[in-house]
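[09:14] KT: can someone run the structure on this one? pasting the chain below
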Amino acid sequence: MGFFSKQFASVIEWNENNEKMLFWKFQSDEIKKDSRLIVRPGQDAIFLYNGAVEGIFEKEGNYEIESQIIPFLTTLKSFKFGFSTPLRAEVLFVNTKEVLVKWGTKNAINLQAPGLPGGMPIRAFGTFSCKVGDYNVLIEKLAGIKQSYSVDDVKERIVTDVNPLLMRWIGKAGRDMFNLQMDAADIGDGICKELNEELNGLGIKITNFTIESFSYPEEIKKIQEKAAAQAMVGDVNKYQQLAMADALGKGGSGGGMAADMVGLQMGMAMGQQMVNQMQMGANSMNIQQSVPMGQSAGNGAAPKFCPNCGTPTNGANFCSNCGNKLV
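[09:31] RB: done, structure tokens below
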């Protein structure tokens, strides 16, 4: 940071790392005629006299006060620059870059949820981008009373306002609380517009506001994981069927895991078919064994031999020897 030697300034500059600073005011009671102004990349230098803008230097470079600065100042063109009458002015250095800042909800927001009288506590995290917008508004609202203003100052304002904005825009999205990430882009855009309108009143522009994630209580996360696991188990059979169909569609030579799965599934299917056939055979034998010799299995045909005396029936309905009814 450039400072004056004793009473007079020799170099007017802002040379410290200003990535997180939006503006910084170089103040001195007097600037002598052989001083120099240094404007670095990503900076604008604004000369202020009695709180009003005298001139803005936007191009990086090294400027001589007497020959390159004074002639371009609005009300000081006729200023007689002499050693005995140095210039009394302020120089405001402005960071012209867009700055990316991380944010997070300071406190959890409670969304209405059935069975939870106090609501479901949810936190959100993301980033926003900001930059200096209107120089005149910035000087009037901030630079006139502050020596500097950082992105941390902007972040503090945003974090203060973000909770009610989240509540309002989540409500507008209409999504249930477990699928908020699907509407994160729309919610972020809505919040960005409102924040930009507010901070424009300070000469600062919010160019982007992003919600990267919503965070739920650990208990809710565990329930979600359990529900997902149960749903996955329910789909295992369907997955195996699809995998088999896919492998067979490739001629049964898919290789690797798919081929192994097909082999396993086919083996299981063949084994199950053999078991079913054995059970059917056993049931058939039981039925045959349960019918007495010479009796019909219930199909209405006469037995070949009379169950009473053993005489051949020759298809008759009554036994020719003992007269026993056969059908």
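[09:33] KT: thanks! The chain has a mean pLDDT of 76.
[09:34] RB: yep, looked fine to me
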